[in-house]
Amino acid sequence: MDTIRISECRLRLARKVRAHEAPQLRGFFGRKFEDEVLMHNHRPDGEPIYQYPRVQFKVLDSSAVLMGINEGSDLLQRLWLDIDQTKLGDEELGVLEAQFETRDEELHVTTEPMEYRFVTPWLALNQKNFRSYVGSRNQGFRKDELSRILVGNCLGLAKSLGIRFQDRIAADCRGLTSIKTKLKGKGMIGFVGKFSVNLKIPEYIGLGKSVSRGFGTIEKSNSEVGG
Fold this sequence. Notes:
By secondary structure, this protein is α+β, with helices and mostly antiparallel strands. The protein has two domains: about 5-105, 2-Layer Sandwich (Alpha-Beta Plaits), CATH 3.30.70; about 105-220, Alpha-Beta Plaits. It is about 20% helix and about 40% strand. It has a five-stranded antiparallel sheet. Strands 6, 7, 8, 9 and 10 form a five-stranded antiparallel sheet that branches. It is globular. It starts with a strand and ends in a 5-residue tail after the last strand.
């Protein structure tokens, strides 16, 4: 089975952090550690690096969370003791408490579907599939389209981490609902709620677009579906 190394740095700040402030966390730490490419996913010339983000910034339970994956985990282990404050917009916030843990998680195909839920909006749609999704009033088509996109997100995650699946991946997105959200000030459609897929996926990593900014964060719902 394929193993992923994950580090989680959870920061309790001087006030509770709100979910929509996760992109500001990414901006602050990207500037603070601008020489560390994995913190902002841009080359020195400013060009973006197109890979699954190895460091992700989230707000969970009103705390700021930095999630490092593989080489991103190594980076956070090296940097986390230097984090004593943050800045959200113009507001400087001290770090009252920092918790850090590193663990090994598996990413592999399962014999039965696993049930998860999106705890932050999943940005599934790009320009092409947005048109087909909103242009259809057929709810069955919409759920099938989301299921297909989710499988693609899972395969993209695995490929970026050097993992190949031998078996077919199937997902069920009937438990998702759409919500309005924003990315860089632009209105977007996001999806929250439960889904199932025949994969063991590490909790609290992201799927879909803009996972470095906290979107598409998953957690386990039940251990398995129908088993």
